[in-house]
């Protein structure tokens, strides 16, 4: 009984330890110097500071493409990926971090006014990458401009102003957050290289591109986004954007993703104090038929359908109650059986004591033979029990002593009956005579 209680206690303690132990989630993000990486690192620090049930193990990659590859290979549970970099169907969105707009800008006084005017020109790509190459190709394809008719030149931010001023590039493509640092700095460099306000090249068919290529969204660069007098741009400019999302593996438990999603949105103010871009974190569309698949765990939080504690563990409580009830019944049955066996052993001992008493008063050999047969039967019953189960040592010793006394009593009575001596000889007391009689 004590062993069962101890085992049950160990099970309960193990369950409590497993429930309270923080769950570590591996997240991939890159490049190391990006605001996305800083945001994720800050989130990991906040979770450690708050002793949250979920912790983040950060894998820093060279770029979003490598983060997506780590996610595809199963090395990361969660990743920050760019929408136009292919990840497997196992990835489901948790949140939208930001949209990186494609800004095509030419120096003031340029004759370039539309995408079609880029034919035969050189476009400088700030932070040149295969993803940005594909984005430019997507734009050119919409306007039926062959990609090979547009020369591309990779640029660092520090090279933009010189390259534009020297005529080495006719326009500049920069992909980034309008409220970040890269895009405004690029626009300022192009403006400084020209004689007047830069020319923003609109992508009027952005909606059509987004419809045909779900990897991109259509966005508007609103008037005056980059300041200045006159404002830059002087009017709203349509364009396309690559979306940066946090995605989770489909294999992750719904409740785990629900907890992660809730924590992410709850700590958004703390994140924004370190990374202002965090204030722009938004929820993905959870409607059926949305272009982006949302993880069921994230959708449960975003739609207000989180499971309560009882919803989550009610079935387990019911199962545990049934199991514990069964265990208690089994212990009760065993205890009853043990008590029954102890009672049976006590009865057999009493039978021996009765036989011993009757043997001492037996009047003939037939009675003694019957008593001896009864003792043999009790002995046989005890041997049968002893061969199937363990008998308490103290009871076995008492039984052996009683059996020995019974056999001794029967043998002694046989001897007395055989010599004709009475069972109990009377004691004669001689009268005491007075002195002098």
From TrEMBL:
Keyword match Transmembrane: yes
Keywords assigned by UniProt, alphabetized: Membrane, Transmembrane, Transmembrane helix
Superkingdom of the organism of origin: Bacteria
InterPro entries for this protein: TRAP_TAXI
Transmembrane segments: 316-335
Matches recorded under PANTHER family: SLL1037 PROTEIN
NCBIfam families in alphabetical order: TRAP_TAXI
Name used for this protein in its record: TRAP ABC transporter
Gene source species: Alsobacter metallidurans
């Amino acid at each position: 009984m004590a062993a069962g209680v101890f085992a049950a206690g160990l099970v309960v303690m193990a369950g409590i330890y497993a429930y309270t132990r923080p769950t570590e989630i591996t997240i991939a993000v890159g490049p190391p110097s990006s605001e996305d990486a800083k945001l994720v690192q800050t989130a990991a620090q906040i979770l450690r500071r708050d002793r949250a049930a979920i912790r983040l193990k950060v894998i820093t990659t060279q770029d979003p493409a490598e983060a997506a590859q780590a996610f595809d290979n199963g090395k990361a549970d969660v990743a920050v990926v760019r929408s136009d970099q292919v990840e497997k169907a196992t990835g489901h969105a948790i949140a939208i971090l930001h949209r990186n707009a494609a800004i095509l800008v030419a120096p003031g006084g340029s004759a370039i006014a539309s995408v079609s005017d880029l034919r035969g020109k050189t476009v400088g790509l700030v932070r040149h990458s295969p993803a940005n190459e594909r984005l430019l190709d997507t734009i050119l394809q919409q306007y039926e401009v062959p990609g090979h008719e547009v020369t591309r030149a990779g640029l660092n931010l520090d090279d933009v102003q010189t390259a534009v001023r020297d005529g080495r590039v006719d326009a500049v493509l920069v992909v980034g957050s309008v409220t970040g640092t890269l895009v405004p700095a690029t626009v300022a460099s192009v403006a400084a290289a020209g004689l007047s306000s830069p020319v923003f090249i609109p992508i009027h068919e952005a909606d059509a591109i987004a419809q045909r290529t779900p990897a991109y969204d259509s966005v508007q660069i609103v008037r005056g986004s980059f300041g200045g007098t006159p404002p830059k741009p002087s009017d709203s400019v349509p364009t396309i954007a690559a979306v940066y999302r946090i995605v989770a593996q489909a294999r992750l438990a719904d409740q785990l993703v629900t907890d992660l999603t809730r924590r992410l949105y709850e700590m958004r103010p703390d994140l924004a104090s370190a990374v202002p871009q965090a204030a722009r974190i938004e929820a993905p569309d959870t409607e059926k038929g949305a272009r982006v698949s949302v993880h069921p765990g994230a959708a449960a939080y975003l739609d207000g359908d989180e499971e309560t504690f009882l919803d989550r563990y009610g079935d387990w409580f019911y199962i545990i109650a049934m199991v514990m009830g069964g265990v208690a019944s089994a212990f009760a049955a065993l205890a009853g059986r043990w008590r029954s066996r102890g009672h049976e052993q006590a009865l057999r001992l009493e039978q021996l004591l009765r036989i011993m008493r009757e043997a001492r008063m037996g009047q003939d050999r037939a009675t003694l033979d019957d008593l001896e047969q009864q003792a043999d039967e009790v002995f046989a019953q005890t041997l049968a029990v002893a061969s199937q189960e363990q008998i308490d040592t103290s009871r076995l010793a008492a039984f052996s002593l009683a059996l020995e006394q019974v056999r001794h009593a029967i043998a002694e009575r046989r001897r007395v009956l055989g010599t004709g001596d009475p069972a109990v000889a009377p004691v004669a007391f001689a009268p005491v005579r007075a002195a002098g009689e």
